[in-house]
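Write out this protein's structure.
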Amino acid sequence: MRVDQFDFSLPADRIAGRPVSPRDAAQLLHVTNEKLTDLGVRDLPDLLADGDVLVFNDTRVIPARLFGKRGEIDVELLLHRAETAEIWQALARPAKRLKPGDIVQFSESFSAEVVGRADDGSVRVRFDLQPDALSAALQEHGHMPLPPYMGRDDDEQDRQDYQTIYAAEDGAVAAPTAGLHFTSDLMDRLKAKGIATSFITLHVGLGTFQPMKVDDTDDHVMHHEWGHIREDDAAFLSTAKRDGRRIVAVGTTSLRTLESASGEDGSIRPFAAETDLFIVPGYRFKAVDVLMTNFHLPRSTLYMLVSAFAGIDRMKAAYAHAIESGYRFYSYGDACLLDCADRP
């Protein structure tokens, strides 16, 4: 399919620079077969049914942006994919000034050695620290990797804002943004309604949010992200699916993980692997029945995914309505609930 089918114009003032407070005060556009309804995230328990299962991505964003020096040269690294516990692929500036053997120093006791380049042009760096020590060093010296469209550097507030309240597994370099809307109070209200929850993991990478650079979707090479669905969660979700309960994915990352692990009959298998699942219109969804997600970048794989899930024309109408009605877009923006029984 031509990528320009998924283009749209977004006024700059629709891009959210900060989240609303409290988190669940965000707007929610309810998209059904018949209509678009303006609601709020706090209305979610009333939109779901007793027995529905909400599936969350419990990845934790790491402070993956590092500033250091190679000699007198200032260097910025943005970690984006772990190869091992010690070796990471990273976007670097200035990348051309770095070569294998170079040491980038972030503090007197924290550094990384350049050990090569990855196929995508990233540098490969090795940290001489055990996982726990590396995690502590990143917390001390790293910065939260806010998407560039926010147009600002991160600050201490982002350490809290750019993390879901249920984050548990270190490894993401971008937030699973639909989950940012959930508060403890909202979770309690969902539980009281009889709505079940399940937690799976997909370590979100930078490629998730980037616009495509090709003209046709057939020419796009999808990024890899590591996902994990534990045996007990897979069994629970498969039983729920078999019993006719709706699987509601909180975010496109949860959806991609579930679909990567699902069989043709909709059963969900245990999963611990990388996925490069690229969903475009024409894809037949096997596991997920309803999707809660934020509003995405034009020409992005995520906008293609939601168009596949709810239909291109329906999503064009939904996005046009959201822009006209003042919804806030992207990572810190508002959300929509795609609840369409007649999906393509």
